[in-house]
Design a protein that fits this description.
Radius of gyration: 20 Å
Number of domains: 1
Shape: elongated
Largest sheet: none
Number of helices: 10
Order of helices and strands: HHHHHHHHHH
Length: 199
């Protein structure tokens, strides 16, 4: 392989020319790239909402598996992801222009595994302190902030005339309550199942 072909391959993954308002460009290349990014963004956003709502499914069952938290503490665990998610939406909205949509989507989706795995271990030990659950709950809020970066990312790809439809698909399917609730309950139930039977 020659030296000159290396930079070409490295640059293929970075979009250097993007003109969605140009009809010819949109037909030849833009529509395909924008659609691919949209259909990757939707499941990433759905996953983010599942992680964001995880404590809604888990908190109500913690005392059933042996924890001794008060009702106020359980409500706090349910509310903290919303608080941290709301606060983090502002910086998350600016991350796509700084790091690129693909990199940021991969990173922000990938880091959601941290609170999920940590929660899986935390629920297996009934001596896990409340403060650990608070930290995990706050980390779940990072998933809620993904909505801002996802919408910012998708809006860059589509011409103004098509942005409403694209953002509607991204926000509507990515935040579909039925899918999110079913997946969130399954994930929360899996954590509690592991807590009871996998010791």
């Amino acid at each position: 392989m020659s030296q000159s072909s290396l930079p070409e391959k490295a640059n293929r993954s970075v979009i250097t020319d993007w003109r969605p308002e140009d009809p010819e460009f949109w037909q030849q290349r833009g529509h395909r790239v924008a659609s691919r990014n949209l259909w990757i963004s939707v499941p990433c956003l759905l996953l983010a909402f599942c992680v964001w709502m995880l404590f809604s499914a888990v908190a109500v069952n913690l005392n059933k598996v042996g924890f001794q938290f008060t009702t106020d503490q359980l409500f706090m665990l349910t509310a903290l992801p919303a608080l941290s998610g709301a606060l983090l939406r502002v910086p998350y909205a600016f991350m796509v222009p700084l790091f690129g949509g693909r990199r940021w989507t991969a990173f922000s989706t990938g880091i959601m595994i941290v609170p999920c795995v940590w929660l899986g271990f935390a629920v297996q030990d009934t001596s896990t302190p409340f403060s650990i659950f608070v930290i995990i709950s706050l980390l779940c809020g990072f998933a809620g902030a993904n909505f801002a970066s996802s919408m910012a990312n998708i809006s860059f790809f589509f011409p103004k005339a098509k942005q409403g439809g694209a953002l509607g698909v991204n926000g509507g399917l990515g935040n579909d309550g039925r899918q999110r609730d079913a997946a969130g309950r399954a994930a929360g139930g899996l954590d509690l199942y592991l807590c009871r039977f996998w010791r």
